[in-house]
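Researcher: For the annotation table, I need structure tokens for HTH araC/xylS-type domain-containing protein. Please keep the output clean. Sequence:
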Amino acid sequence: MSALSTTSVKPSDVIPFWTDVVCKTYVRVGCEIDNNSRFRAGVRTVDFGRTRLSRVASTPIRYERTTENIADCGNDDYLIKLLTAGQARIEQHGRSTLIGPGDLCLFDTARPYKLVFPDTYQAVMLKIPRAELDARLPVAEDVAAMRVAADGRYTRLAATMLSSSTDLMGDESTSSPRLGANLIDLIALAFDACFNDLQPNDSRYSKIVVRAQDMIMQNLFNPDFDIASVPKGIGVSSRTLNRAFAQQNIAPAKWMWGKRLEASRSLLETGRADSVSDAAMRCGFNDFSHFSRAFKARFGVNASTVFGR
């Protein structure tokens, strides 16, 4: 746990000091305040594995993350804000959203954004590795700067858990990755309930398919490779992987076995297999009868015929 405050900082040093604190705690941003002598801010943080929870309070301030900041610092985590006092305006993706106490909002640090706090505020922040939230909430990058109302179906539950978890700051025995995972689960649940009709954009699904196909192709001749290992290997859930492949009207396993059949045919046609069973085994088929039927169904010819040519 760490705690930092501007209390003992000279007014002339307030902006560089607080900017440095924010950049190290979250991501690189620029800070603007109107009155150095009256500015007060403080933050307490605790890490649960790779997830960072913090409680921050400040007098009025404006933050901006620019394309230059992003280029200087490649961090692409998500930040979740639970406002507990005051108001905030969040601008990202061409949206401008006002949130109040109890509301949740997400912003994507891989893209520029602005945060404006016109009055003194208090908030709980959760910094989540991108892959961790994407695996639970496929639409995460599409709901940046969109308000999840305090009276949302699961918002109060998530807000209570976030606030309660900050009470554990200072107790090192609670800094467990498992608690971080539970917090992410609740956040995903709150956002999913609010935006359950929103579908991820096609480009995101396309990227998931490409990553999955790359992993499969790298293991095409590995007989121990299991398609069930792909979601974890590329950082998404099984549900998200299936949805992504569904956009192309095929299941991940079917795509993999199709590629393995094509590879086996290539081995047989080019004489790089000692026998039909050798080609089958090398391409991950442990059941020779199943391989023969699948080969005939796919290519309209028996594998033995291809081998004998």
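Researcher: And a one-line annotation?
Model: The chain has two domains: 2-194, 202-308.
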